[in-house]
Design a protein that fits this description.
6-stranded antiparallel β-sheet, Mago nashi protein, Immunoglobulin-like, 4-stranded antiparallel β-sheet, 13 strands, alpha+beta, 2 domains, about 260 residues
């Protein structure tokens, strides 16, 4: 069949907006038996990450892009404040073929859907890679509740606070006031050590921040190893919570 004579070499995704630094590039390459992904965001070279992916990952991407129809002509006269393109290169009968898909082409529904799947899959690998080096504390919060989530990590120099990410939106949130959304608060590992995280839902307007770590129980402890890989530690978490309870008892006795 046609698919057997085609061998995927690389897939590149580029996206850029109006701002100079609003750009993303993802490149997946096959060299010999190694499959590599390079991810660049913004204009800062320090924002580049690269890592190897499995052959099975690459094969999954091959299946998706080989299902796409050939690119159609560009529609001229379009000025867009958003540029998106996907370039696919493969070897067919000993020759390298390049196909370039862009936002300015008309696409059949199947090809547009497959293009989205290919990009989503590459982002999934990037997320999977980043996850190893991050503390991700998942929580759920009511949509209409008059509360806020306060999060804190110590020692602060071991991690960089990445903020809140939406994991899942309640599909019925606009219909009912009792819906809930799922989030994760994330920190990136900077140095090896043990990090304690506090995450609590508090009433709006409460001044909790000043004594937050003294008034609230630690939520979780994580160990960052020499390679900056992060893992949750049940033992350290229980020990930190035990220390907090003892301190609370002591404080009550001395008040």
């Amino acid at each position: 069949t046609n698919a057997q004579t085609k061998e995927l070499s690389s897939v590149s995704y580029h996206r850029s907006g109006m701002r100079f630094d609003d750009c993303t590039d993802i490149r997946v390459n096959k060299t010999a038996d190694t499959y590599t992904l390079v991810f660049e965001t913004g204009r800062d070279e320090n924002n580049t990450i690269s890592f190897e992916i499995e052959k099975s990952d690459f094969d999954e991407l091959s299946t998706i892009v080989f299902g796409m129809s050939k690119p159609r002509k560009e529609r001229h006269g379009y000025v867009r404040d958003l540029m998106k393109s996907l370039q696919v290169s493969f070897i067919k009968n000993g020759k390298t073929v390049y196909l370039n898909y862009s936002i300015n082409q008309r696409k059949d529904k199947k090809t547009a859907e497959l293009e989205k799947q290919a990009v989503d899959l590459m982002y999934k690998w990037i997320d999977r890679y980043k996850k190893q080096f991050e503390i991700r504390f998942n929580y759920s919060k009511g949509i209409a509740t008059p509360t806020e989530i306060v999060a804190h990590a110590e020692p602060a120099d071991l991690v960089e606070d990445l903020g809140v990410f939406t994991e899942r939106l309640d599909p019925d949130s606009d219909i009912q006031c009792g819906g809930r959304n799922d989030y994760s608060h994330r920190w990136r590992a900077l140095k090896p050590g043990i990090v304690t995280v506090w995450l609590h839902e508090v009433s709006l307007g409460d001044d909790v921040v000043s004594n937050f770590t003294k008034d609230y129980e630690p939520s979780a402890c994580y160990i960052i190893d020499e390679n900056l890989h992060v893992r949750y530690s049940k033992e350290e978490t229980l020990a930190a919570q035990e220390r907090f309870k003892k301190q609370q008892k002591y404080n009550r006795r001395t008040e």
